[in-house]
Structures are given as C-alpha cells and as structure tokens.
Amino acid sequence: MDQIKDAAPPSDSKAGSSTEKVPAYSWYALGVLVVVYVLNFVDRNIISILAEDIKADLGLRDDQIGFLYGTAFGVFYALFGIPLGKLADNWHRVRLMTAGLAIWSAFTALSGFAKNFAMLSAARIGVGIGEATASPSAYSLISDWFPKKMRATALAIYSSGLYIGGGVSLLIGGAIVENWNESFPTDPPLGLAGWQAAFIIVGLPGLLLALLVFTLREPVRGQSDGIVTPPVKDPFRGFFQELVAVIPPFTLIGAARGGARGIVINLTGALVIGGIAYLMADLTGNAQQWGAVGIGYYAIFSWASTLKRRDEPTFTLIWGTPAFLSTILGYGMVAFMSYAAAFWAAPYAIRILEEAPSTAGWWIGGPGAAAGFLGVIIGGRVADWLRERMPTGRLFVVAFGLTAAAPFLYIMFTTLDPTVFYIAAFMQSLFGSSALGAAAATSQDLVLPRMRGTATATFFLATTLVGLALGPYMAGQVSTMTGSLSTGGLSLLIAVPIGLLLLLVAYRTVPKAEQTLLERARGAGEAV
Q1: Among 188, 239, 260, 431, which is disulfide-ready with 87 (CB 3.0 to 4.6 Å)?
Q2: How does DSSP classify residue 150?
Q3: How far apart are CA 52 and CA 119, in angstroms?
C-alpha cells in the first residue's frame, strides 16, 4: 500500500491560496503539453476531412467511417488508458508521455500506407494505444505544477489543444488532400492518394516533438496539495497487474485470483456483454463495431471487478463513488455529441452542401479551433469562479455545455445554407467545449494524488467508450440505415436528457464526496 505523508486534509488554504504565485516553469511546461495535445488531436481528427476520399477510395460505408474514427481508436485508447494511467501514477510521467508521442505519431504516418479497411483499422488502433499515454500523464503533471485553485484553468488551457488540434487538422488535411490530388492526378509519388499523404505529413513531426517533451522536469508528486507521495519502488508492477486485469483473455487470470466466485462473476459478465454485443451486431449488420465495443466493455468490467481486491481505496474513490461516476458519465454525454458533431461536420459540408474540402476545412477548422479554445478557457475560468462560491459550481458549467450546444447541433444538420452551417458549427463548438475543464477538475478533486492517473484514465473511459466509440458511430449507422446524414446528426440529441439526469445525481452527491474524501480512503485501508 502506498504511503502518503502529511496527513492534514488538503484544504484550499493549504493547497494553493489566492496569493500563491505559479512558477514560470509551470506555465512553460503547460505550453509544451498544449502543443502535444494539439498534435494529439491533429493525428486523431484528421480522418474527418479525409473521410469522403477514404470512403470513395476504399469503398466504405458511413458506419465503417464512424468505426474508424471512433471505435477502432476509442476502444483501445480506453483499454490501454487503464494500465498506462496506473503507470502514470507510479512512474516517470515525462518519459511515459515521450514514448507515447513517438508511438502514436509513427502509427499516424503508417496510416498513410493503408490499402484497405483492415490495415487502416490496425493503424488507428496503434494511434489509440499511443495516445492513451498523454492525458493520464498530463493531468497528473498539471495537478502537481498548479495549485488546486488554478487547476480547472490549467486543465482547461491544456484541453484547448483538443479544439486547436481538431481545427488545425481540418485546415491542414483539406489543403493537403486537395493540393496533392491536383498536383498528381496520375502516377502520384509512391502511389499515394491525397488522403494517404496527409496522414504521413502530419504524423512525422511528432517524432521531433518527442525530443522536446523528453527535456521537461518531473515535479514532486502531490506537493501542490500538501500530500507528498514518495516514489514507488516497483513502478511497472502495477502496470503489468492492470494490463493483465484489462486485456482479454488474460482477464481470466485476474478473475481467478478472486477464487471461484471471481471466475463466475467474470464469465457471467462476459456472457451478458457478449450477448448484448451479438444482438446489436445482428440488428445493425456491423459486427466489427459491436465486437470491438463488447471487448471494450467486458475488459472494463473485468478491470473494475478486480480493482476492489487489488486496490480497495482507489476502487472506493472511483468506482464506489456515485459522485465520480455520474460526473464523468454526465460529461460523457457532452463528448457523445461533441465528438460526433466535430467529425461529421466536414463530410456534411462536402457531401450535402457541396463545399470543396479546402473550403470546408477552412471554415470549420479555423473558427472551430477558435471556438473550442475560447469555450474551454472561458468555461474553465467560470468553473473555478463558481467553485469558490459553491461546491457544485463546476457542474453548472458541465450542464451548460450540454444544453447550450444542442440547438446549434440541430441547426448544423438541418440547414442547407453554408453560412448558417458554419456559424452553427462555431457556436456548437464554443458551448460544447466549455464543459471539459469543469468536469476534469471535478474528477481530480474526488481522488487522492496517487490516484490521479487512474482517475484520469477512468474519466476518459466516459469520453471514449461512451462519447467517442458510440457518438460518431451512431450518427454514421443511422445515416447508413436511413440514407440521410442529416438524420444521423440529429440522432445525437438523445444525449441531452440522459446527460442532465446524470448531472442531477452529481449535483446532489459531489459535496459530500469531497468532504468525506480522506475519511472514505482511510476506511478502505489507505494509510493517510
């Protein structure tokens, strides 16, 4: 069991007063992490502007395109985020992020050599695994570089890379594919189509950026909260324990350690999840989507069911806390809409509004990046301001991001006027992005410093296995079934009532969960 020094509760007065000055190096390091996150989302999101070319070149359907963007990436991003989140809790976070950046950049470049759906799916899985290192490491680092009172703002600044990268990916991708295809209508270099060249061009710079990331200094873990956590003697032990616990079929090994009861629970979960996945695959005719989702949900079930035995305090503060779960799932509904709207915006503009890729990339990407940046920064600042006045203040920002974005999503997928479409896309991104910093900071406040990497990985389960793996795919599946991309986009509005219900639960439970944090950790066996 990890030992934590300084048993006094991490009050706001101790962990970052309003007069405490943030060191200049913290801002520099945050700037580097923002650049990393920008590249993270360039590599992740560029497939949006390339979707129509990929679809035509490889003969794919909308549901398959949604699978490539969301599920193939998202499921493995989520699964490997668990062991890598544990490694971020125990090991050198800067080194972990450096390795991950090099891996996902290499797989992005390899995407450019894909010749069929299977090869592109495999490359997207590799990108997902590499990118799973980024946010657990970054969230933990930022929480040690910045005091609690500045945490939502700092995390919001980091998260702005999501929107900047998403916008830049459309600008760059649209320009590359259009110019490449015009310059090489026949016999292109290495036989590469424009969309393949785009993957290669945006992937390679990450290998150079990894060298800069490697120079960052590792902060003292927990110092900003006054709960200094000493280094773990065997940091990779926890990583391999989590890897075995979450990757099928090795999950049966973890279950067996719980005796016959553990095996029965695990197999029962596998049968139930597998049965649901089979029924959904039969209903939609998309076996790869629901097979991947089934694997993902079974793996998470296996991991969560063994965590209580392996690390009861972490289980108690994460999976055993309704406040934590309702917060991340409530934000998951924001991600459900936002990921899908961001991905399908460019195909809608190109296919329905008959805009050129470069034009769509310019008017969606540039304003979208600005809107996302403004939204996440303003949302983070407002969340911190409200948090000082009420324990649940940040949750109002999450609820705002969910409800205020919905009308503009409706306009996006019903209008036939390009100008109205671009304005609606800007507003949808502005409001949808405002929720991220508030939700992320709330999740960090509900766990101890040594658990932040694992908590971040669990937070991203909601944004990936709920938001990313289901949102873009569902819009594509509905589009395929109805023959209408507009109907596919409108189907995303189902997230609003579900999200509001979850956030209501969070509103009622978060204050008590924060007040009893150390008490519940001690009760679960934590040495504090």
Answers
A1: 239
A2: G
A3: 18
- CB neighbours of residue 204 within 10 Å: 14
Contact call for residues 198 and 172 (beta carbons, < 8 A): yes
Tell me the C-alpha distance between 59 and 71, whole Å.
19
Q: What pLDDT is attached to residue 9? A: 38
B/e letters for 332-362, b = 16+ CB within 10 Å, e = fewer, are: bbbbbbbbbbbbbbbbbbbbbbebebbbbbb
* Residues 263-277 pLDDT 10s: 999 999 999 999 999
Tell me the sheet residues that pair with 527.
Answer: 3
CA 273, 279, 283, 285 dihedral sign is positive
Percent of the chain surpassing pLDDT 90: 59
Residue 313: its H or E element:
helix 312-317
For residue 100, give the nearest of 62, 74, 119, 128 by alpha carbon.
Answer: 128
For residues 211 and 51, the answer to whether their CB atoms sit within 8 Å is no
User: What is the C-alpha separation between 267 and 280, in angstroms, rounded?
Assistant: 20
pLDDT at 355 over 80: yes
Question: How far is residue 311's CA from residue 309's CA, in Å, rounded to a whole number?
Answer: 6
Task: Please report where in the chains the tokens 């956590």 appear, as a residue.
Answer: 229
